[in-house]
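Session log. Operator J.P. requested a structure for one protein chain; no other inputs attached. Running the standard single-chain path with token output.
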Amino acid sequence: MANNGKLHRLYLLLEKVENGYHPSFHEIYDHYYNHGFEISRRSLQRDLKTLRLEFGIEVSYHHGRNGYYLDRSRSINVESFYRFLEYAQSADLLSETIRDNRTNLEFIHFESQGSLRGLEHLRDLMFAVRNKRIISFIHYNFVKETRKTYRMHPHGLKEYQNRWYVVGELPGIDNPLKFGIDRIESLAVEEQTFERNPDFDIQDLFDDVVGLSHTESQKETVVLHLTPLQGKYVKTLPLHASQQILHEDDQGVKIQIRVKPNFELIQKLMTHCDMVTVLQPQWLADRLKAIYQSALQNYGGS
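Structure written below.
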């Protein structure tokens, strides 16, 4: 089976299991069939085995309800796997569209070329992470406009706004560091291995923040009010996984998120301009107010 077809089947299986309230084999079969696949019980078992062994996703059978369910307690990184499937599905659909007619590329616009730089490092970096191998590389610093050589214990990879970062520790430095792979040169995976830090969990590192900037500060409840139109966008593209709708009426939408406020959160709030108001905490509202007042000075305001 082609890899694209295999991933599409796994996506269909999880889609049905998550939304089908313990679907039976026949219900899963119908879901596959409606999307162009025919399966047997044996092929379903192969798909379940693939999810378990290759991706750490456990779909089990509930005898009391006579159907299948996603066992999140025995699965690892379910949300990351869903994100991976989204990427794979998008790539598959684009490839199919272009195969149908090469001139379709004339009608597709990609944001930029820069986000693809460094992707050639992904395979080597993932190998180093999985096998606990030390890496060395030269990294270009945008701010200082300098290049520096590093040796790193890589613990994982992070994607943010279509750019990839390698995340890990440098010998002698306690804080986790991240480097954009688009600015990495002369990457080398060394033979020497390292002991993985049991306190370093890349999922925990970013779960409570927006974006990349890790912070040791405490989580806070951030309450925002958005205009009715902007509220529609934020409801479909949440600011953070913890987002909850508190209230909605013809005046707008009130939401809350539970995060450790950082630089990227402030940046993201600023992209909404006057369509968002910070209601809580007060210090964050004051910070944004000061930023806007400073920006106003650039335009001769007072």
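Operator note: The chain has three domains: 3-80, 115-202, 220-297.
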